[in-house]
Amino acid sequence: PITRTSRLCLSRTSSDHEGFSSNVVSVVSLEKGLARRRARAEPGGMASDPLRPDPNVPLFAIPRVVPPPPPPRPSGPSISLAASPPGRDLLLRTLRPILSELSADALAFGRTAAYLWGVDVHPRGTSVTRERLRVALPPGVRGASRHGVVVHRELIPYPDRSLIEGVRVTAPARTALDLAAEAGCPYRATAVLDRFLARGALRRGRLLSTLRRHPRSSLPGLALAVGLSDGGSGSPAESWVRVLLYRAGLPRPVTQCRVETARGRFHADLGWPDQRVALEYDSAEHHSSRVERERDRRRYSAMTDAGWEVVSIGMHDLRTHPERLLRRVRDLLLDRGWRPSPTARERVRRAVRRIERDPPRLDEG
Fold first, then answer.
1. 203 CB neighbour count, 10 Å cutoff
2. What SS3 class is residue 124?
3. What is the DSSP letter of 159?
4. How many helices and strands in the chain, by DSSP H and E?
5. Closest C-alpha among 163, 165, 176 to residue 202
6. Is pLDDT larger for residue 223 or for residue 35?
């Protein structure tokens, strides 16, 4: 039987249960409201339910299909030079069908490639349109005799290839090193590399990296020419002077050396700023007229007034008595503060004697 005490307990329990239920309903309502707010804040208006699978996520891993790598292509871009040398367009039109017919790996090579890069290394007075084309072909490819081209047998690696207006050609660094290797001496090899650097077709860092994989990298003079190369040389003779100074053991000069004077800033062909010595090469081509000689006289006078010693040389000094030039430069540097060790001074003396006994055979081609 239910006593009064039992009724009181049941009524109290019932009221506690109703209060608990109301609390549960309140919490559930609060969670639903928060879920609706999150749904409105998320893109697309859909609330993220951790128990509901996302239709955008697959239930199992889909195997990734990796496409095969494309065939290797020439690393250099298609380049169009703004300042085209004479006959370059005709040379490009001639090369296109020949290279296409010979092989997919046929490239313009040597002096032909150099001309396309804007560097003319043909003998003086020779027209490029009358020269036989130089072409690199892989071993075993036939048909070159039909086109009358000069063939270099080698499969040129892809990093050493480039394109000029759609024509396959050896890259600038490879072209420069090929011609330097054919030069036969470090004087001419350095002059070739200087011309490419001065043209802006490449940088010395690219020369160094290409030299490591060049097939003729073991040539003694090739690495020396790369080390001495400088885009500041304005003529092959200036390049020869730098090689001559190096072989004599004299300090390396600065190309296009800046000279501040009361009449403005000038740039000497070669110079030693610490000793304030400048060396100027006066070629017959650019320093023969009366106006040019007067201009040079004013420049030299301004540099002398600024405390510089100017040494003016010509091709005669390089060809006939290079040892006299070297002794003159040596004495000026010593008088103006160059202090080599006794051993270094003796090496310079012996090197100059060797050059006097066996002078380099230089020509302007």
1. 14
2. coil
3. G
4. 13, 9
5. 176
6. 223
pLDDT at residue 37, as a whole number? 59
pLDDT at 9: 46
Environment class of residue 34 by beta-carbon count within 10 Å: exposed (0-12), middle (13-18) or buried (19+)? exposed
Instruction: For residue 98, give the nearest of 58, 62, 140, 147 by alpha carbon.
Output: 147
Q: Evaluate if residue 71 carries a pLDDT over 70.
A: no
| Residue 166 Cα distances to 67, 176, 267, 311, angstroms | 27, 20, 39, 47
Angstrom CA distances, 332 to 243, 245, 279, 309, 335, stand at 19, 14, 11, 8, 5
Tokens of 85: 């040398």
How far are the Cα atoms of 243, 249, 319, 344 from residue 330, in angstroms, in the given order?
15, 10, 19, 12
Contact predicate 300/312, CB 8 Å: yes
Do 227 and 217 meet the contact criterion of CB atoms below 8 Å apart? no
Q: Which residues 6+ apart lie within 8 Å of 59 measured at CB?
A: 53
Helix (H) or strand (E) holding 167, with range, is strand 167-170
Judged by DSSP in three states, 206 sits in helix
Contact 342, 336 (CB under 8 A): no
Q: How does DSSP classify residue 43?
A: G
Query: Beta strands 264-272 and 277-281: pairing type?
Result: antiparallel
Entry pTM: 0.75
Angle between helices 186-199 and 172-183 (to 10 degrees): 160
User: Could you read off the pLDDT of 196-221 as tens digits, one per residue?
Assistant: 999 888 888 999 999 999 999 998 88
**Where does the pLDDT of residue 17 fall: very low under 50, low under 70, confident under 90, or very high at 90 and above?**
very low
CA distances, 236 to each of 131, 299, 313 (Å): 22, 22, 14
Report CA-CA distances (Å) from 51 to 44, 47, 48, 54, 84: 19, 11, 9, 9, 71
Q: Indicate the burial class of 149 (C-beta count within 10 angstroms; 0-12, 13-18, 19 or more).
A: buried
pLDDT for residue 76: 46
SS3 per residue for 59-78? CCCCCCCCCCCCCCCCCCCE
